[in-house]
Amino acid sequence: MMSITGHSSGVVDRADRLFEVLHGVVHAEYSGPNTPGIDSIFLALVGLFLYLFFYYNLPALANQSKHLIMTQTNIHIPSLGGTNAFTRTLSKEDVKICVAVEEAFTEAERCSEEKFCYRLGACPELCLGLFVENEQDAASPTLIGHVIAVRSPYTRVTDGSMEMPENWRSLDDEPVFVNDELIGNHKYGDSIAIHSVAILPEYQGKKVGRALVRAYLEHLGRGCFGASKVVLIAHDYLVNFYESVGFKSQGKSQSTFAGGVWFDMTFDLE
């Protein structure tokens, strides 16, 4: 587990040490009584140093701060009896087990392995897994459900946001538009667009899905995601389910994802 605070502190410590060395060098070289502009020379070198330092270090800091520390949050689900359950954010290392859970959907609605790689790489902090303790191997808990999401600038889920850019592996997190429609994730999006809420079939009908969605909304509430709304599309028979956990139905959706009829659901974070 990597601490973002610890990483940042290390960078700052290195900066302080280099700053002291630079200060000493300047005064050693230009310490004569008739040498003009020592302070000006020093400040100019400090400015150059700071520019180079942050130019090479800010990308690394930004990359670290993009991902939340993977901590486990215990969750009590009465229907599971005494089985220990917890949630944690997901990463690209979880792709295979996410694919297995996704088989709970019909084939047309499933997220592909490649699309999981894209979404978990773009927004791991917005993807949450529900795990239970594995009695045969305590070190390898079992993923029984997940919520997968990306960022979107829209207040409704669009078919474009359900997709991924064709050349996503070579992109640098920049949003992609095709015919003025966003494709996939938008890193500055004000909405969190949920594209998958899946529970293994053997755990369905036990209020596990409700517990997971509530845990996900709590997860968003604890973080600093800069989003104002959560959006998703649901089949008509799931509208009441999402309303029971705080979502509001906005009527029939314009989305035709997987050839289905959907309803827009929204949840205000602010």
UniProtKB/TrEMBL annotation:
Keywords: Acyltransferase, Membrane, Transferase, Transmembrane, Transmembrane helix. The keyword Kinase does not apply. InterPro entries: Acyl_CoA_acyltransferase, GNAT_dom, SNAT-like. GO terms for molecular function: aralkylamine N-acetyltransferase activity. It holds the Pfam family Acetyltransf_10. One of its GO terms (cellular component) is cytoplasm. Residues 134-270 form the N-acetyltransferase domain. This is N-acetyltransferase domain-containing protein. It comes from Penicillium freii.
